[in-house]
Task: structure prediction
Amino acid sequence: MKLAILGAGVSGLALARQLMLRGYSLSDLHLFEAHSVAGGLCRSKTIDGFTYDISGGHILYSKDGEVMDWMKQEAGGEEAFCKRDRNTKIRFEDRWVQYPFENGLGDLPDGPKFDCLQGYVQAWHLREKEHSEAPPDFAAWVRWRFGDGIANHFMDPYNEKVWKRPLERISSGWVAGRVPDAPVEDVLRAAIGIRTEGYKHQAIFYYPRKGGFQALTDGMVDPLKSQIRLNTRVESVTRHGDGWRVNGEDFDHVVNTIALNELPKFVEGIPEHVAEAMRGLAFNSIVTYLVALDRPEHPNLSWVYLPQRKQGPVNRLTYMSNYSSGNAPEGKTSFLLEVTFEGGTPTPGKELEEEALEGVVRAGLMERNEILFTDRSVCKYAYIVYDHELVKRREIANSWCENNALLPLGRFGHYDYFNSDQCVIAARDTAEKLARRATAG
Ligand SMILES: Cc1cc2nc3c(=O)[nH]c(=O)nc-3n(C[C@H](O)[C@H](O)[C@H](O)COP(=O)(O)OP(=O)(O)OC[C@H]3O[C@@H](n4cnc5c(N)ncnc54)[C@H](O)[C@@H]3O)c2cc1C
Result:
């Protein structure tokens, strides 16, 4: 049974590896990859001894211990990884505020502390009194859940930086399990200076000692090397009996991990209403800037959030050289800055880098004279945007793919807010499905 896998990011690679483990013959697996290197959003780049993750700092963490162990094994086993305690903070004026913000109110200056506490208690009281339902739009949800103070000082400016759209256009549906949710007692304790732990998710994470996060996908690439067609863009997918013809070659099955938005450009026979649903799926792109620093060490932080507008366009700064000392030459350190932009709009120019660096200086996190050099990467498909049409559009797109034996998989292939471990879980499920079909057939 000859299988084409469109895209060799972690989803495509994990699917191929999972099929091999289920007895699939290597020669039946064919991965098409447009880029010259496999790994997709998990790719990393090394320049003059500095390594960074091109789509923003990546960590390995999973609630599924079996999958996390499997991912580590694929990349050389436990010894190939650094184990790190997650230590994340929010930069506010010249202070470090504990993350999540509502567990860190005690770290704020008095004015914002009062605004945030008063708003939080008012919002809590209103919810208790009115038994109100969570509002469907994110802007209203933030005020309903956290109150005006936290909305004004943190949630609104931070989320405007990430989503690059009015927050009314974002659905509150995406917040479940993603935005930390502290009990009111913890927030009160935190505000008067009693430490509360708050967010325990990802308290410990793993990162490859060498090669950046890409070491994880490199490990999967090794046994598949002969079957990955690099520099091979999928340009046409046409019907062929029960299967598909990809770039003129026949396959029994096709699994797609390329962004659904792209399919109308090269897949034959997509009805117009399905193509319209695919094209309209909203996404954000990302520019990342490596900042190589002539600085021997950093504070013990994993990453920090920069919510304030005066801190410039960067929403998150990752201490790349704290993830692994292998990410910088001895005696040097590095940051990675993340800036999003609306998908489908032109890639920002050089002036954005200036604004990003200036903002980080204003936030008090570096001096200009520490910079050795910078490097920039751009990823078109980075964030799925949960606008109010996402669920409907995704359902139309994925149903058509499923019904037409073009199996959807991955962050943008299925349009789910997946981390790499969730891509692997989905790949494992798809491998099961294909293996069952092979046995049944
Ligand atoms: C800012 C940010 C931070 C993140 N942090 C983490 C984290 O800390 N931990 C974590 O586990 N995950 C994290 N993720 C998520 C993780 O990067 C993704 O879930 C994962 O990499 C998605 O893999 P994928 O294979 O589904 O898609 P992709 O990586 O997008 O792979 C798709 C592949 O298809 C190829 N392709 C596209 N078009 C064509 C074409 N026409 N022909 C052939 N090939 C094509 C692409 O080149 C690419 O290699 C983060 C993502 C972002 C954006």
Remarks:
- The first helix runs from residue 10 to 21.
- DSSP finds twelve helices and 19 strands in the chain.
